[in-house]
Amino acid sequence: MKNFAEMFRRLDRTTKTNAKVDALADYFLQVDDEDKLWTVALLSHRRPRRTVNSKLLRAWASELSGIDTWILEESYHVVGDLAETIALILPPPEQDYDHTLTHWIDYIQQFAGYDEEGKKEAVQEAWRGLNTTERYLFNKLITGNFRVGVSQKLMTRALSRATGIEETNLAHRLMGNWTPNDTTLEDLIHSESATDDISRPYPFYLAYQLEQPAEELGSPEEWQAEHKWDGIRGQVIVRDDEVFVWSRGEELVNDKYPEYHVLASAIPNGTVIDGEILPYRDGQPLGFNVLQTRIGRKTVSKKLLKDAPVVLMCYDLLEYEGRDIRKLPMSDRRELLERVVAENDTGGVLQLSPVFAFSHWDELAAERETAREKFSEGIMLKRKDSAYRQGRKKGDWWKWKVDPLTIDAVMMYAQRGHGRRANLYTDFTFGVWDGEDLVPFTKAYSGLTDQEFNKITAWVRRNTVDRFGPVRSVKPKQVFEIGFEGIRKSTRHKSGVALRFPRMLRWRQDKPVEEANTKDDLEALLATYGG
Amino acid sequence: MPLLTFNECGIYCERADVYIDPWKPVDRALITHGHADHSRWGNKYYLCTRTAAPVIRYRLGDIKLETVEFGEVKTINGVKFSFHPAGHIVGSAQIRVEYKGEIWVASGDYKLEDDGLSEAYQPVKCQHFITESTFGLPVYRWTPQEEVMADINDWWRQIASEGRTAILTGYALGKAQRLLNGLDTSIGKIYTHGAIENTNEVMRRQGVKLPATTRVTREINKKEYLGNIVVATPGAIGQPWVKKFGNASIGAASGWMTLRGARRRRGADRGFVLSDHCDWPSLLEAIDLTGADNVYVTHGYTAIFSKYLREQGLNAVELHTEYEGELAEIETKGNAETEKENLAADAE
User: One GO molecular-function annotation for this sequence (chain B) (predicted)?
Assistant: First the structure.
């Protein structure tokens, strides 16, 4: 773990891509294959399962350090990270254990067979022999939420440098359904054929948000335009008479969407489709709210299938007749995709995402304005001669989203943030006027610059009215423009509405607090867009 | 009536009609040390230690100021006042107040570790202790200064070997001089930000020994900085001023660097945990050493820290004051001090 901790410290110290890749590549050259594989797994969200809940962890840390749990809790609100809080409050280590990362992960995986007392002894024993950074990492591993600011792309680049295997090839091999418990680095990255795991998906190609005017993209004839569907990105694979459905988070979601099982026999083997998992009925998409009733459900009841049926809105074809066709131009792939959808009877499970005919950008802009009414988030633009690339790359694919809905709201409560915003007030509750009173209706965390967060933190400290644990109520003085993607009725929220993706667009320091929006304004938005 | 009370102007002794570190203008102010939140403009009369005076005069200009030696007793209307080392910065004092057997100590800002520049902290017995709690949470625990300075010098050596410039930040009064004092001058030359060099000059004149430093000016060729170190104020980072150092590595020295979030937010390449305030264990040790039963917590994590002290059986009260502790190193406040620092740098 010493190498791992040193690598983590190096990653943590820099925001520069090259320095991160250097740190990772150096590390990969130092450690054995087992540690390499676990590191790859951790950096690609294949974390060991959580074996201890955080409540127990707090109690054991409190016991070992002689610090009461209430003050540990207060410290946690300041630090913004439980694993880090515990690492910092524990007394200095009595020993200095030097074991591999794999050793510690095995150690943690064995907890599953221990009773509570056994787990406690094992955890406290580890704490006694690890330094602060190592303890932090160990805590992250047991709580199952290890995250570090390095993308899969950078990790792949570093591993490529350390192993000599070409990067795109490596990226493809690291996809799919594996854990270090059931494979070796040798099998995963050195074995001959990349299709030996028949469920292995292709890396998704992701689009950038279009910031410049669409006209600057050049001639409309070069571009394919379609809806930006408001569902979940998915990749459906049919190989060897089996179907595999992957979500963009590289999660295998076969069980959640039984609608797709029919595809195993309905479309030919060696077909991989990129599309949107979309709630859909009678030729119309249903809102994202409807899909939300299915996210997170492992087993799906008959009623749910009836109330929230999904289709695959198909927009790209990656494998055809067993051949990887990602290098073909978009227009050719589109033609083959149309053939796959047209020639096979899937009972409507596969829907073809329509393309807009347009000869001028203005026509498209008009289409985009009405997107929200069609449960679409805007328009996707894809260059007709583009290959299907990996990850987020600029140039060929753009998402041209509809402008967010907005409302001017008053800050009512503030709470400290987490992670790199620890100890800063970044989590706010906002209200709108209802006569003389403010009614809270949403929280928002993001959208301000670091400098603005610094400034508002100083303001919150000096304008606190009351404290409720970690939450402070503040004087109703500050107005923020809140942007959001959708609004719907909610019985769970006091205000009766729930917003989708609320964030702060601007701090309206120019706006008097009396001029913020009202509950009536909010209800008018609900009536128009609440579906 | 207690000997000291707290009102809208500051800590007040009615019997002697004096304030300690007032935040609004008053007739007579006893000052613990020269940081801006403790020694403010506009008082008609100031009293501080002899070694704290030069910086206060430099900052506040033409003021009526008298000085005392550490330990010297000054009696005002029967109340005995004496100043005792607080170990925070050069000249910083805890102010002891005694009348008819009632003893208070207002400690201002303080730290227990001897930094080699400030007069080393001495515990003072009292019944009533006024304390800060800037780092009053158990997550804050410092490593000894020598280890931190060794880390800083290792970092500088590494950056110098790459032919780059190291920029190290700490505020202009106190932290900066402590850093200068710990730098290994065999690695290279030390350059300083204007606001820091101004303070250095004041301190050198009063006999404080500091290593040789060169003020950063426009006339210096940019290449001269390579391999050397620049000690700068936290506020200078992110300003156009730092651009002249090219591909420099930035290190920040502050107690806040304990937290990963603060390290990442700071935009520094390296965070070094070094503070002129007490960490959690030394706050508790200091309070214990005073023997006081009554503790008044003025700034920092006041609510949490005073609750903890009450659980330990002390009469601890949380106060609302306008002291800021080390906030300047975590917030960009646009306050007078930061603006003055930036002006000092821009002038060059």
Answer: RNA endonuclease activity
- Measured CA to CA in angstroms, residue B132 lies from A269, B127, B316, B322 at distances of 72, 16, 12, 12
**Does the beta carbon of B320 lie under 8 angstroms from any beta carbon of chain A?**
no
Beta-carbon count within 10 A of A301 CB: 9
For residue B324, give its domain range.
Answer: 5-139+276-346
- Spell out which residues of chain A touch residue B305, defining contact as CB-CB under 8 Å: none
Percent of all residues in chain A with a pLDDT value above 70, rounded to a whole number: 98
Element (H, E) at A115: none
Specify whether B134 is located in the same domain as B283. yes
Kindly report, residue by residue over B114-126, the tens digit of the pLDDT: 999 999 999 999 9
Asked whether residue A417 is assigned to any structural domain, the reply reads: yes
Quote the minimal CA–CA distance from A9 to chain B in Å.
10
Give the pLDDT confidence score for residue A528 in this predicted structure.
82
Q: B200 to chain A nearest CA, in Å?
A: 29
| B261/A420 CB distance under 8 A | yes
How far B155 CA lies from chain A's nearest CA (Å)? 12
Domain tally for chain B?
2
Domain final residue, candidates B272, B307, B328: B272
pLDDT-derived band of residue B327, with 50, 70 and 90 as boundaries?
low
Closest residue to B269, CB basis, from A14, A88, A451: A14
What was the pLDDT predicted at B343? Answer: 43
- Do A100 and A214 fall within a single domain? no
User: Do the chains contact at A85 and B258, CB–CB below 8 Å?
Assistant: no
- Say yes or no: A397 and A410 in one domain: no
* Contact assignment for B261 to A457 by CB distance below 8 Å: no
Task: Give yes or no: residues A425 and A389 share one domain.
Answer: no
pTM for this structure?
0.77
Range of the domain at A431: 405-529
Q: Is the domain of B12 the same as that of B135?
A: yes
The strand pairing partners of A381, in sequence order, are A225, A398
Q: Are residues A413 and A480 in the same domain?
A: yes
**Could you tell me if B301 lies within 8 Å of chain A, comparing CB atoms?**
yes
pLDDT at position A192: 63
Q: Report in angstroms the alpha-carbon separations of A315 from A102, A366, B344.
A: 41, 22, 60
ipTM: 0.89
* Distance between start and end Cα atoms, chain A: 53
Q: Hey, what amino acid is at A288?
A: F
Residues B267 and B280 in one domain: no
Domain boundary among A379, A401, A423: A401
Q: Give the tens place of pLDDT for each residue, A154-184.
A: 899 999 999 988 887 888 888 877 889 888 8
Strands (E), A298-396: 310-320, 323-324, 350-352, 376-383, 391-392
Give the residue-averaged pLDDT of B10-26.
Answer: 96
A461 shares its domain with A382: no
Residues in chain B with CB shorter than 8 Å from the CB of A424 are 261, 265
User: Of the candidates A143, A165, A194, which is a domain's last residue?
Assistant: A143
Average pLDDT, chain A: 90
A·B CB contacts under 8 A? 76
Q: Answer yes or no: is A176 within a domain.
A: no
Of B141, B261, B332, the CB nearest to A422: B261
Same structural domain, B291 and B268:
no
Residues in chain A where the model's pLDDT stays below 50? 194
Concatenated DSSP letters of B99-137: ETTEEEEE--S--SS--SSSPPP-----SEEEEEETT-S
C-alpha–C-alpha distance, residues B204 and A259, integer Å: 80
Task: Look up residue A124 and give its two tokens.
Answer: 């406290």
Q: Which residues pair with A439 in a beta bridge?
A: A432
List of chain B residues whose C-beta atoms are within 8 Å of the C-beta of residue A79: 139, 259, 261
Nearest to A89 among B139, B301, B304 (CB): B139
Is the predicted pLDDT of residue B38 greater than 80, yes or no?
yes
> CATH number, domain at B164?
3.40.50.10890
Average of pLDDT values for B179-186? 97
A191 lies in some domain: no
Cα distance between residue A408 and residue A482, in whole Å: 6
Instruction: State whether A71 and B137 contact (CB < 8 Å).
Output: yes
Interface check for B263 against chain A (CB to CB < 8 A): the answer is yes
Number of domain units in chain A:
3
